[in-house]
Amino acid sequence: MVAGVCAKLINPEWFNLIKLTTTRFTKKCGGQDDVGVQWVQPLPVATAKPVALCFQHHYKKMNIMIKKIVTTLVLVGILLLGIVVMFLYENDKVDVKKSETKSGEVVNYFTETVEDGNTVLTYPLDTTHGLQPNEVIIGEGASLEEDGVFVKMSSQSFGSNDPTLAIVEGSDFHNGIIEVEMNGSVSQKASLIKKIFARGFIGISFRTKEDISTFESLYLRPTNGPTDDQTRKNHAVQYVSYPDWEFSRFREEAPEQYEAAAPIAPGEWQKVRVEVEDEVAKLYVNDGIDPVLVVNDLKLGPNASGKIGLWVGQGTNGFFRNLKITKFD
Description:
- This protein is α+β, with helices and mostly antiparallel strands.
- It has 2 domains: 2-88, no CATH class; 93-327, Jelly Rolls, CATH 2.60.120.560.
- Helices cover 23% and strands 30% of the residues.
- A hairpin with a 2-residue loop joins β3 (111-115) and β4 (118-123).
- α1 packs across α3.
């Protein structure tokens, strides 16, 4: 078929329409110019036939080369797809196979006292009683030879925008002080893609609505604490307000205003203290005298209220212990 097309094109009646512009065809198919060749005069049929055969020969060679290239690209594509599937959908082997929630049982998992006229709730967090997981897996740290409770994103939550936290029952909160110890590190059992972007994200949510549709949150990026990269170091702690104000929006509209540096490190217990009053929240870490981050315009407004949550991000092994909530109202 191709030879027939070539022969038709090379027929003397059509030859004045043919223009070859490559040196290779010039040398191999009878042209005389070193740069290119343009025939404007009809050639005899006896000359056209060998040229047509030449076109056919080189078309076959080109066709074989194209098939090899396409085959190679397909194989490379399949390989890349396999890698992407492995990274994105690899089962994230978790240390706790299922949530150990026991809130249905009657267990004294917190104490309530009064200090200076303020109600104080104390949760040792040595049990999962009183914790309601949302897109996370929880367990008792003792089973992993660690203190506190264990919180980790479930494998189903990766890639979704659903909140990943465990709600603390009985922790209704408006204004006051939240104190807790937390230990966040990058899971060594996470898939490679998660490890690349993971920072040991761990923090708390507060004023969390019952259906978890809105909440305020302050969290740590522990691996950013000791890094020599100053930009990352300046992003060690972060404020977000779910669902409208994620960190990416803050960085675009108010860069550096809602995150800051902090003396934190992965795999170590960090003491966190959050003071909340109306639209203002102050974050202190490790008994620091001055706050590492001050938020003067909490996005849910001064009247928002709700529960406290133990929050973790992707690729994080998170532990929490010794939660203390002091209510001002």
